[in-house]
Design goal:
This is ATP synthase subunit a. It holds the Pfam family ATP-synt_A. With 223 residues, the protein is mainly alpha-helical. It has one domain. Helices cover 73% and strands 4% of the residues. Helix 2 packs across helix 7 and helix 4 runs antiparallel to helix 5.
Length: 223
């Protein structure tokens, strides 16, 4: 299913692609989900064991907290809400193909934007931790003549991070599209197993990898 929005701006016609529209849909879904959870938390009793939706949310929060604590350190737990938000968005975006929509992460502009967020967070915390002189001195280590390579390596991080996510999700979309075209009416019978791999397994795995690399990059900059 493709939902594209034509827009006329400054006398020119533009088309907002379905991947961007789907990103907005996911943001709306996650916002409504957060409001529902917030409402349930306010009504819940502090001494009672959570059940239903709150139980699932608590398990997810504890998982992310443990992940941040073991990867970045207990002194960086303030970063957990961002990682939880990132994981939830990527997980829903990567699995969006299961309900017939184009996954937003199959669009490089989406994955590159997410990678740039990681890149700028890394640079910000590196500058904040090391100071003005220390930030630029980091590029000269361990030897000054390696400075160009260190700069290139730093700039390559968002490119490699975005291409890894984009390539894996897009390849799944292309392969499944070709199979549906080739199999025709038999596609619903033969493709569920492939959906389990290309959409579910690959989507969850790429979400975990992106979140882990984000924590490693930003945590390393903080240290």
């Amino acid at each position: 299913m493709k939902i594209e929005i034509p827009v006329k701006l400054f006398g020119k016609d533009f088309l907002i692609p379905d991947t961007i529209v789907n990103s907005w849909i996911i943001l709306i879904i996650l916002t409504i989900f957060a409001l529902i959870v917030n409402s349930k938390i306010k009504k819940a009793e502090a001494g009672e064991k959570p059940s239903g939706l709150l139980n699932v949310v608590e398990a997810l929060v504890e998982f992310v907290d443990g992940l941040v604590k073991s990867t970045m350190g207990p002194d960086k737990m303030f970063f957990a809400p961002y990682i939880l938000t990132l994981i939830m968005f990527l997980l829903v975006a990567n699995l969006f193909g299961l309900i017939g929509f184009t996954p937003p992460t199959s669009d490089y502009s989406v994955t590159f934007t997410l990678a740039l967020m990681t890149f700028f967070l890394t640079q910000y915390y590196s500058f904040k931790t090391s100071g003005f002189l220390g930030y630029f001195k980091n590029f000269t280590e361990p030897m000054a003549f390696l400075t160009p390579l260190n700069i290139i390596g730093e700039l390559a991080n968002p490119i490699s991070l975005s291409f890894r996510l984009f390539g894996n999700i897009l390849s799944g979309v292309i392969i499944m599209g070709l199979l549906y075209s080739a199999l025709g009416y038999f596609a619903p019978i033969l493709t569920p197993v492939l959906h389990a791999y290309f959409d579910v397994f690959s989507g969850v795995l790429q979400t975990f990898i992106f979140a882990m690399l984000t924590m490693i990059f930003v945590g390393g900059a903080m240290d």
